[in-house]
Specification:
The chain is of the alpha/beta class and 370 residues long. 46% of the residues lie in helices and 17% in strands. The strands form three sheets. Strands 1-2-9-6-5-3-4 form a seven-stranded mixed sheet, sandwiched between helices. It has a two-stranded antiparallel sheet with strand order 7-8. The structure holds glycine.
């Protein structure tokens, strides 16, 4: 059942191994990368409780020792204080230039540990062992690392590619339904952005996949990672096409800021709502048919996901305030917001040519039904 996706980036190429049981085999995969049999693992307290013993045993079977630091779980960790703590701990552990740091957790840990590896001794190698669906299909692949700033998400960071990614699909079984579905928002995104057949497949297989079918899970993760790997290998540092991966994210980042990055809205939930809004905007601009946003929303709803602004608990600011929050987005170029819009399902494109009034109107209408 195991699959592999190669991320082709010249000397910085690496493999993403996908399948159940990879944590148990972690030592076999990581040992060939080591010059001495010891790794430093950064994780969070929830993942540590559930899976750290399994990782320790998986490494020990290949004679690899580990030291570990468990940071608090949650987005609040992705800031300077815990980042500083992680880097200083790695130095205390005498992690050398040829050693490997292991990022063992979801997107927060992957981004923070990857950034720590990028700056430690001017750069050490790292291995991603993503434990959330979101991290397996998106954040562990492609080398974007970093932390949040008070001014916005992911504004401090570096491109630093991992040396290996081990996506153990068995650990997805320990996620809460909410976390699983939030990650599924990013899976749907891949179908919407450039693979209508994949979206079609998800419409049929989504329910069994959510219910735990391992073959469907491995296939969904593999197809998502393959799409991401192809895009990243053509545009590693987001000079163009990689921005497509941000479908739904301009709306999402505004909604996350409006909800204080709290658990009122998880990132993947915001991506799903953002994708629905991006298709609504595309349809109103006459770019895609009116059926497309309805189809997107119908699938999200059928999966029991947050789909509309009304699904976000609590008050939201008005439409203009949400548009103002988009101004901090990294996708702003020369002061102009860029949107990912679509000519149909699987046909996304990047544009700065969006009338601000149309964005305000879409949000006003979405808020009116909230
Ligand atoms: N998550 C978007 C990217 O990696 O480019």
């Amino acid at each position: 059942m195991q699959q592999v996706v190669h991320v082709d980036l010249g000397q910085r190429s690496y493999d993403v191994q996908i399948g159940p049981g990879l944590i148990d085999q972690a030592g076999d995969w990581i040992a060939p990368l080591l010059t001495r049999p010891r790794v430093a693992v950064l994780t969070d307290e929830n993942v540590a409780e559930l899976h750290l013993d399994a990782l320790r045993q998986g490494l020990a079977k290949a004679g690899v020792e580990m030291v570990s630091l468990a940071l608090p779980a949650g987005e609040g960790t992705k800031r300077w204080p815990q980042f500083t703590r992680a880097v200083e701990w790695l130095l205390e552990q005498k992690i050398e230039r040829n050693d490997i740091v292991v990022a063992f957790g979801g997107g927060v840990i992957g981004d923070l540990a990857g950034f720590a590896a990028a700056v430690l001794r001017r750069g050490v190698r790292f291995v991603q062992i993503p434990t959330s669906l979101l991290a397996q299909v998106d954040s562990s692949v492609g080398g974007k690392t970093g932390i949040n700033a008070p001014a916005g998400k992911n504004l401090i960071g570096a491109f630093h590619q991992p040396s290996l990614v081990l996506a153990d699909t068995a650990v997805l079984g320990t996620l809460t339904a909410r976390d699983f579905l939030a990650g599924y928002g990013e899976v749907v995104k891949y179908g919407l952005l450039e693979d209508a057949d994949f979206f079609d497949w998800l419409e049929h297989q989504g329910p069994v996949l959510a219910a735990g079918d391992m073959i469907a899970r491995v296939e969904a993760v593999t197809r998502s990672v393959q799409m991401k790997a192809d895009i990243v290998s053509r545009d590693e540092t987001e000079q163009g096409e990689r921005a497509l991966l941000n479908l739904g994210h301009t709306f999402c980042h505004a909604l996350e800021a409006a909800t204080d990055y709290s658990d009122r809205l998880l990132h993947g939930e915001g991506v799903a709502i953002g994708c629905a809004l991006a298709f609504e905007l595309s349809s109103r601009l006459g770019l895609c048919s009116q059926e497309d946003p309805s189809r997107v929303r119908a699938h999200l709803k059928a999966m029991g996901m947050k789909t509309d602004l009304a699904d976000i608990p609590g008050e939201l600011p008005n439409a203009q305030a949400l548009v103002d929050l988009m101004g901090q987005d990294k996708k702003v170029v020369d002061g102009q917001l860029r949107f990912i819009l679509a000519r149909g399902i699987g046909e996304a494109f990047v544009t700065a040519d969006v009338p601000p009034d149309a964005v305000v109107q879409v949000l006003e209408d979405a808020l009116a039904t909230a």
